[in-house]
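Subject: two folds for Thursday's group meeting

Dear M.,

Sorry for the delay on this. The cluster queue was jammed most of the week, so I only got both jobs back this morning. I'm pasting them in the order they finished. Each block is the input sequence followed by the predicted structure tokens. Could you check whether the formatting survives your parser before we put anything on slides? The first protein is the one we discussed after the seminar.
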Amino acid sequence: MARYDLLIKRSAIRELEAVSTQKLRRLIVKRMRTLQVDPRPPGCEKLIGRGRYRVRQGPYRIVYAVDDAKLEVTVFKIGQRKDVYR
């Protein structure tokens, strides 16, 4: 299986920096890195009408898109469940 490039939007980086604890930030980064190997892991869900996916990491959600032609995973949003889908 090919390894995907991980692209993170600037807005997602700012959202990651706003995460309350360093431990949670590390877990989120680790989860994003696993998307390079398997962009559609067990537990991911395809979002309706956007062509994007979401994966959970504790109380946070990572919203991303997969481009199989370019072998890229682009992270768009990182946030708590109550805020991330708005």
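Second protein, same layout:
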Amino acid sequence: MAHDVTDSSFATEVLQSEIPVLVDFWAPWCGPCRAMAPIVDELAAEYEGRVKIVKVNVDENANVPGQFNVMSIPTFIIFKGGSPVAQFVGGRPKADFVKELDAVIA
């Protein structure tokens, strides 16, 4: 299951991660975000140990979304080696995530 990351834990959890990280920027009131939650949790289970999957609640954490120009939610950013390598906005089929994540860990 994806776990929550805050402004204060973002650098340690994401930027300094030894493995790629998929960050889900979301909010509890966002319908598309809630619709994507089961897919995000499935990916967290399937990629465990190969990709870290975390969530940032944009209502509770304003600094990190601002740093990465998150204007709409859900926004997903894949980080590798502390840098963003892929970004997409809005709901997507699981296959899109698999394609992106497989390319990053290949």
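Two things I noticed about the second structure. Residues 31-46 form the longest helix (16 residues). Residues 3-105 form a domain with the Glutaredoxin fold (CATH 3.40.30.10).

Cheers,
T.
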